[in-house]
Specification:
115 residues; mainly alpha; Multidrug-efflux Transporter Regulator, Chain: A, Domain 2; 5 helices; 3% strand; MerR family transcriptional regulator; DNA-binding transcription factor activity; DNA binding; MerR_fam; DNA-bd_dom_put_sf
């Protein structure tokens, strides 16, 4: 499928897909007219990349993970380590956001009491 169709199926903009390709996060086949050709296996991969981005993984770490993925199953242990480190980061961020949320709720409650 071409980039527009792929963008619709994944919910990821064409410009983001081009950016991912430019940074080497995705490898895309091309047709005789040099148009990008995506297949169904690319759908879950780019959705996963988007989730990594949304959870705050750095582009550098995403690139390292992607490079290892394209190298094959011999890199599974390295990819696991990257994801474990990132999971720790996400957990730390979640705890911070819980505290921020509690602080906001406390402040809102204080304002309600003042009224």
């Amino acid at each position: 499928m071409i980039i527009g169709e792929f963008s619709e199926k994944t919910g990821i903009s064409c410009s983001a897909l081009r950016y991912y390709e430019e940074k080497g996060l995705i490898h895309v086949e091309r047709d005789f007219a040099n148009r990008r050709l995506y297949d169904d296996k690319d759908i879950e991969w780019v959705k996963f990349l988007q989730r990594l981005k949304n959870t705050g993984m750095s582009l550098k770490d995403m690139k390292r993970y992607s490079d290892l993925r394209y190298e094959g199953d011999s890199t599974i242990s390295e990819r696991l380590k990257i994801l474990q480190v990132h999971e720790n980061y996400v957990e730390e961020q979640r705890k911070l956001w819980e505290e921020y949320s509690k602080n906001l709720k406390d402040k809102i409650e204080w304002y309600k009491e003042q009224l």
